[in-house]
Amino acid sequence: MKVTQSAFLQACREEMAGGRVREGIGTLGEKTQHAVLKRLFGPEESSREVRVGPYVADVWGEEGIVEIQTRGFERLREKLDYFLQAAPVTVVYPVGAVKWLLKVQEDGSLGKRRKSPKRPGAFEILPELYRIKPLLGREGLRFCVMLLEVEEYRLERPEVKVGRKRTACYERMPVSLLDVVWMGEGDFSPLVPEGMTGEFTAKEFGKAAGLSLGKAQTGLNVLRAVGAVELAGKRGRAYLYRKAEGG
Predict the structure, then answer these.
(1) Residue range 164-177, pLDDT digits in tens
(2) This prediction's pTM
(3) Per-residue pLDDT for 24 more than 50?
(4) Nearest to residue 171, comparing CAs of 54, 44, 36?
(5) Domains and CATH numbers, the chain
(6) How far, in Å, CA of 44 to CA of 138, rounded?
(7) Inter-CA distances, 79 with 39, 73, 130, 142, Å
(8) pLDDT for residue 28 is more than 50
(9) How many whole angstroms separate alpha carbon 39 and alpha carbon 20?
């Protein structure tokens, strides 16, 4: 399954031509990012929203089932278990690696477009993988992390008191495809940052992956379970890890 920038942009154009731009922010049903990715992996309309037993697959094509999930992987457990009995499954996980923020005012007007300083990577999927850790060794299951440039529209929430988050993400509009990272079926090495050739702590792993210490520890738990890293002793009170041979 090859994913290219040209195919991605074509899916964006086709989805926008379907009336999403005319409908406008605040009146959309299915989120645009999800709809674009579903069209990308399922160009034929008949391959999208296919019933598989008690569930509905986002896409079921020649290469198997595709499920697009941005978070909440725990909700996928039973669904994936069922799907894997019928066909190979690819879980697509989009990440806004470059994000432009636009605030939608109460009157519907847009504020100034600004770039988020955050630059998340494929490692963002690690805490989600922890939620389905028992399934990670299943044959036919793989993951596709799509690093995207997106415009994120945030709605103002005037009812929220000062000091708390006063905007909420309502919509993400994909702009371009930056990179695609594949993993699974016994190979999760792309989730070990480049340069981690020796022994390292969870804190050092988190710094290289752009994750908090808690998320880094959870991620290393996953990577140990799939054989991508192994324990290498301790440095003071901190556990040491190293990339597993062949991992």
Answers:
(1) 555 666 788 899 99
(2) 0.88
(3) no
(4) 36
(5) 5-185 (no CATH), 188-247 (1.10.10.10)
(6) 28
(7) 21, 10, 16, 15
(8) no
(9) 14
